[in-house]
Amino acid sequence: MSTDDRTDHPDTPEPNPDYQPQDVGIDRRSFLVRLGAAGAAGAAVAALPPIAGRTAHAAPNSGTPFADVVRPEARTDPTECTISEAATLIKSGKLKPSTLIGAYLERIAKWDPQYYQAYNTVLYDEASQRALKLDRTKYIGPLHGVGIGLKDNFYTEGILTTANSYIFADFVPDYDCTALTRLENAGAVLLGKCQMGPLAGGRPTTPDGTVTTRNPWAPNDPSVTPSGSSGGSGAATAGRLATCTLGTQTGGSITGPGGSNGLTALKPTHGRLSVYGIIPLTITRDHIGPLARTAMDAAIVAQVVGGPDLNDPRTIGLPPMPDLVEAATPVVKKGRVVPRWPTRVGVIPGYTTGTNATALARVAMLNTLANIGFEVVDITLPDEFSLLTGGAFNVSSSERAEIDFKYLKQDVRLFGGRLTGWLPSIVQGGPEVAKGLRARLLLIDRCMSQMFNQCDVVMQTGSTFDGIGLPLCTYLIGFAPNAAGISLPITSVLGGPPFSEERMLSVIAAYQAVTTWHNRRPADPLVSSAKSRIAPTRITCRDVDRECRAAMEGSEIV
Amino acid sequence: MAVPTNPTDAELNAYILFRFGMLGIDISVLPFQDSTAQVDQVSVLSSCRSTLRQSLQLLDYELDVQTHIATYYASPQWAWTQMGEEGRISLAKRKQALGY
Fold first, then answer.
1. Which of A98, A265, A427, A431 has the highest CB neighbour number within 10 Å of its CB?
2. CA atoms of A233 and A179, how far apart (whole Å)
């Protein structure tokens, strides 16, 4: 049984009744005040943002990144710790950063080269040295000594950053991306660069298409995909090869691996987290986000990384970072978990249709949310939703072609199997791109006036929100066997209006407070298994063509 | 010159290859047709033809030129404008609809 009533929870302080999350709580006056303060924010570029954006909306029961209870399995095996648990143990002196990092490096050395293949580069020496230094350093913050991995398209000074491609095979940046700077300012230790779909497209493979990363829930079977393109990031977190990782998403590349690997993976609102120092795929759709184990962990990382960055104009002039840690702290009244805010959870048509394991898990998850006290409501989709989120209206590949034009002229073979994600837009005309960009406003208008007038958050089945930058978050809701009898994760994807991360995380945190799916750990690989010797598979024209067709239907994984 | 309203694959291929050639993009370095390869000329041309045919659907779609401006960053723009009281889909309207 993976759910319980948890009537033994100690009550938490009453949330501030005057505080409303940002999706309904921003008024013009406070917005203008923030705009006036935007210049001041520039002085803090690349500095650790405040954990809590508590100003006029200060809440009495501020959340804490520290765990009330550290599970016994996390005490005996540090790699089992969530960020929250690791932070609790490290802050109290019960776990040294060097012990935690050493445990990860040992596990990576034992399993990653032959099985998970979640990393492109492992920083054995650098991570060990930093951890030893942190042993002797005053406690910095919630990521003090916590081991993280970054997708291999995040700039890391002096460290190979390849985007797993021929194009960037030898690229060594001379500065860190904003995300890494902020993570390290909060005490994080970079364990390595995670494997990814070449040029941030598709399942992780070598640039010539040979399958690499495996799904930790089936580490002996390379045919089970960890999804892409942040598949290495997802596998590293799920396989306990890092406490948390970050990935990028342009069309499903965080939520896809988040789902396949059974994680709580947050694709924030566009602009919430700086993409300065990320090898771009597009200029208007690229996001970064955490692939974490829990809503609290996702909140901690987003809190640390998010906020204004003058190096990325897309982050300026937006609502301030709210207290995501507080939002991800479950509220308990009279021993029962209750919604932090009254919230309508929208269910799109067909979401629970059928009798397969996914449909049944969705029904059970919605019942759990209803039992907590969320209002679960059936909603209708906005007019022409499928059309407006479909492939014809996705003009972002023009951006890729524009960014990488010199490489297309140099040698199209540099793009390996991802070439068909670039070339078609070359033959598109300017009017199509202009129309696609104008249709984005129609789509977000319709989402706001015809979808989010019915609900606060909405269950999603794909990455249809990516083109307009709305936030999404996956979370684990069950397991089902595949055709080979391997039990694989079933995850749900929650979406919301712009800057609704607080509310989304509060819903998922409440769900995780009364369920235990997110605590399940995949078994280690079987060393003697014959399946572990299966020859590597290779991605061919047919696979790429299938992905392209999916992209045209709006379920792109890039 | 008559313009084909439903161009054939061959006509589209000619257009695509002309455009590539004009821009200096050479796909002849790829195998012509090899299903075991990661990518070949046939699959590239097929993807390009699909995109071109979809483009017609996109261009035929009518949008209000007064209200639907081009939007590079839809969600940030919503915050930059729509969260204000003058927004077309104002926060007040949404809060009213949801009963807040």
1. A265
2. 15
Q: Taking Cα atoms as reference points, which of A189, A191, A89 lies closest to residue A133?
A: A189
C-beta atoms of B83 and A31 within 8 A? yes
Closest CA to A543 of A182, A153, A205, A72: A205
Neighbours of A363 (CB within 10 A): 15
| Matching residue, tokens 């795929």 | A281
Is cis: bond before B46, omega within 30 of 0? Answer: no
Q: Residue A246 contacts by C-beta under 8 Å, 6 or more apart in sequence?
A: A148, A149, A150, A151, A154, A179, A183, A233, A288, A289, A290, A291, A301, A305
Distance between CA atoms of residues A529 and A341, nearest Å? 49
Nearest to A21 by CA among A316, A466, A324, A271: A324
Sign of the torsion angle spanned by Cα atoms A24, A26, A28, A29: positive
The catalytic position among A98, A253, A463, A506 is: A253
Q: From the CA of B10, how many Å to the nearest CA of chain A?
A: 15
CB contact under 8 A, B54 and A427: no
Smallest Cβ–Cβ distance between B29 and the set A412, A438, A449 belongs to A412
CA dihedral A215, A219, A224, A229 (to 10 degrees): 30
Closest-approach residue (CA) in chain A for B48:
A424
Can you read off the two tokens belonging to residue B40? Answer: 């070949």
- Which pLDDT belongs to residue A40? 42
- Taking the CB of residue A16, how many other CB atoms lie within 10 A of it? 14
Phi-psi region of A37 (alpha: psi -120 to 50; beta: other; left: phi over 0): alpha
Closest alpha carbon to A385 in A558, A557, A556, A554: A554
Biggest distance spanned by C-alpha atoms of chain A: 67
Q: What percent of chain A has pLDDT over 90?
A: 78
Q: How far apart are CA A149 and CA A180, in angstroms?
A: 10
Return the amino acid letter for A514.
V
Q: Which among A395, A427, A441 has the least Cβ separation from residue B69? A: A441
**What is the ipTM score, two decimals?**
0.88
> Cα separation of B25 and A540, whole Å?
22
For helices A178-185 and A295-305, what crossing angle results, to 10°? 110
Do the Cβ atoms of A512 and A518 come closer than 8 Å? yes
Model confidence at B28, pLDDT cuts 50, 70, 90, reads: very high
Spatial distance between the Cα atoms of A329 and A157, rounded to a whole number of angstroms: 35
Q: A159, A193 in Cβ contact below 8 A? A: yes
Which of A35, A405, A448 is the best substitution to test chain B (most B C-beta atoms within 10 A)?
Answer: A448
pLDDT tens string A114-166: 999 999 999 999 999 999 999 999 999 999 999 999 999 999 999 999 999 99
